[in-house]
Specification:
lyase; two-stranded antiparallel sheet; Rossmann fold; transmembrane; TPP_dependent_decarboxylase; THDP-binding; alpha/beta
Amino acid sequence: MSKTNLLDRRRVVAALLANRKDVVAIGGLGASTNDITAAGDHARNFYLWGGMGGAAMIGLGLALALPKLPVLVITGDGEMLMGMGSLATIGLQKPANLSIVVLDNERYGETGGQTSHTSAVADLVGVAKACGIPDSRAISTMAEVEAFAASVHDVSAGPRFANVKIDSAELTRILPTRDGTYIVNRLRGDLGFPPI
């Protein structure tokens, strides 16, 4: 990965959620959840504290259950590599309201910053396209991030996938609650469903 012109992860996530309206946002394990929280805690944020590799499938489930609402998964390259098979299911199901953004710093941040496969051979955009997600793109500028953020609101043209190359800066963790019942019930309540 070229070390120049990499995007700032917090700036990317803030831009994705700046005009969120009714978007349901799912944060993958670790840093992406912290980044979503840094952009502003919200009742429609679903923070994934465990189950590495599950963010895209949780997004798929929500997208299928709520087809009129935009669903945005924001996750990291390590988490997406762990759940790469989910892209095949998403390509098969074709939820028009689902968008997936991978914040790719080419590192496994949760286990010590080891180099991930996206630094060498793994092309997540190519995998997403091969799995039946034709709107799959690599993003390298804030203008492209902002354009993608606007497209998230179109619930008739997905699924869409974006891999965003970001820097690997160590940022202060901004942690949301880890109370899973609270997170689920807050989201359910905001969507008009009773608590579980």
